[in-house]
Automatic annotation (TrEMBL):
The keyword Heme does not apply. It catalyses: N(6)-hexadecanoyl-L-lysyl-[protein] + NAD(+) + H2O = 2''-O-hexadecanoyl-ADP-D-ribose + nicotinamide + L-lysyl-[protein]; N(6)-acetyl-L-lysyl-[protein] + NAD(+) + H2O = 2''-O-acetyl-ADP-D-ribose + nicotinamide + L-lysyl-[protein]; N(6)-tetradecanoyl-L-lysyl-[protein] + NAD(+) + H2O = 2''-O-tetradecanoyl-ADP-D-ribose + nicotinamide + L-lysyl-[protein]. The lineage of its organism: Eukaryota, Metazoa, Ecdysozoa, Arthropoda, Hexapoda. It comes from Trachymyrmex cornetzi. GO terms for molecular function: histone deacetylase activity, NAD-dependent; NAD+ binding; NAD-dependent protein demyristoylase activity; NAD-dependent protein depalmitoylase activity; zinc ion binding. This is NAD-dependent protein deacetylase. InterPro entries: DHS-like_NAD/FAD-binding_dom (IPR029035), NAD-dep_sirtuin_deacylases (IPR050134), Sirtuin (IPR003000), Sirtuin_cat_small_dom_sf (IPR026591), Sirtuin_class_I (IPR017328), Ssirtuin_cat_dom (IPR026590). Its cofactor is Zn(2+).
Length: 332
């Protein structure tokens, strides 16, 4: 059976075949309870706990950020006049090279302006302030982690960001502020260095490589994590989704999401691969994955409350939202 399992895994080129050592390792009991309380106990017991957080659109929905990748979001109606081959073409790099206008029309609606970070964003910042955050990996391009005050060295924007842009011809860098002025005026931003190239925000389009920072840090970080917290992601977009399998076998994984996602499929289970989250483990030994179902903000506040940081988190949010309000006023 073991032979067949290994043969199939090699044939199918499935990654991360666990060694015998890792199999033994996974027999240890990591969490006292497979629940949020079990995770809280684990964090309290591990004073130098190194936590990686991973987040998707779900941490930004309560900020009012539209889910622009979904054609049903309504934003795409504004693009009817461009006769796009399909809605997603707007984020297709080759299409953009030929015709950047539809993207910038949509970008006007999407500019990260006036949105306030959510409880979830500030919870991540609190983890960082407490020295527990190894790194935060986000799929979001809305820059709200930066607005929430998370330092850029703790942040990996896996799908790029609106925060900066580059000329597609000479690679000259531009700021969000510079791009914003042009986009709001309805002008396609053109490079002032070479006077030729279009300046594209550094968000990752279909057909583009992910940022090098993502590859380098993912290789380095995940093996060192003591706890992985996944929030508000449907865990379907690769390679982001498969990051969950790059932590050690003994690293507990907490999913805070409206529904259970990223679960192990039957083939991976048969092959004994550590692919996907495994909830509701009945065996007395195993089990390290916990799902807390609900919206991210409620989950993060509850986790903070249970850790005894609830008031601190509330105070941080109040202070920061006040500060942003003052900044907004002085901007206008
Ligand atoms: Zn240029």
């Amino acid at each position: 059976m073991e032979k067949l399992r290994r043969y199939l895994a090699q044939k199918l080129r499935l990654v991360d075949l666990p060694t015998n050592d890792q199999n033994n390792e996974s027999q240890q009991l990591v969490l006292s309870k497979l629940s949020l309380d079990g995770i809280v106990e684990y964090i309290k017991e591990n004073t130098n706990c190194k936590i990686i957080t991973m987040a998707g659109a779900g941490i930004s929905t309560s900020a009012g950020i539209p889910d622009f990748r979904s054609p049903s979001s309504g934003l795409y109606h504004k693009l009817d006049k461009y006769n796009l081959p399909h809605p997603q073409a707007i984020f297709d790099f080759n299409f953009f090279m030929k015709n950047p206008e539809p993207f910038f029309t949509l970008a006007k609606e999407l500019l990260p302006e006036g949105f306030k970070p959510t409880i979830s964003h500030y919870f991540i910042r609190l983890l960082s302030e407490k020295g527990l955050l190894l790194r935060h990996y986000t799929q979001n391009i809305d820059t709200l982690e930066r607005v929430a005050g998370l330092s850029s060295d703790k942040l990996v924007e896996a799908h790029g960001t609106f925060h900066t842009g580059h000329c597609l011809k000479c690679r000259a860098p531009y700021t969000l502020l510079w791009m914003k002025e042009k986009i709001i005026e309805g002008i396609i931003p053109k490079c002032e260095e070479c006077n030729e190239g279009v300046v594209k925000p550094d968000i990752i389009f279909f057909g583009e490589m992910l940022p090098e920072r993502f590859r380098i840090l993912a290789d380095r970080d995940f093996i060192h994590a003591d706890l992985l917290i996944i929030m508000g992601s449907s865990l379907v977009v690769q390679p982001f989704a498969s990051l969950i399998d790059r932590v050690r076998n003994t690293c507990p994984r907490l999913l805070i999401n409206n529904e259970k996602v990223g679960t192990q499929d039957r083939l991976s289970r048969f092959l004994g691969l550590r692919q996907g989250l495994v909830f509701d483990v009945k065996s007395a030994h195993g089990g390290r994955d916990v799902a807390w179902l609900g919206d991210c903000d409620t989950g993060c506040q509850l986790l903070a409350d249970k850790l005894g940081w609830g008031d601190e988190l509330r105070a941080l949010i109040q202070r920061e939202h006040e500060r942003l309000k003052v900044e907004d006023k002085s901007d206008n």
